[in-house]
Amino acid sequence: MFNVDHNVDHPTETDAEKLVALVHGRTVNKLGRDAIIGAVTGNISPIDIVVIRRCLTMIDL
């Protein structure tokens, strides 16, 4: 199992560069950094953040 730290500096981090750094390298290589930055700079609500955080917690189990 991989031990991946999904924590960012702040629980409501919105800096695209920090968020892209959390994406797996193969995904970045496949889709391209610009595509991922575009995806994470869209309209993300506080509810979306909670759901994503819960999904990441489940992955770490």
Structural notes for this entry:
This protein has 61 residues and is mostly helical. It contains four helices and no strands.
Outline the fold blueprint:
Elements (H helix, E strand, L loop, with lengths): L15 H5 L4 H7 L1 H8 L5 H15 L1
In short:
With 61 residues, the protein is mainly alpha-helical.
Class based on secondary structure composition and strand pairing:
mainly alpha
Largest sheet: none
The 3D shape can be described as globular
Q: C-alpha Rg, in Å?
A: 12 Å
Give helix % range.
Answer: 55-70%
Count of β-strands:
0
Mean pLDDT across residues: 78
Keywords:
mainly alpha; single chain; 0% strand; 61 residues
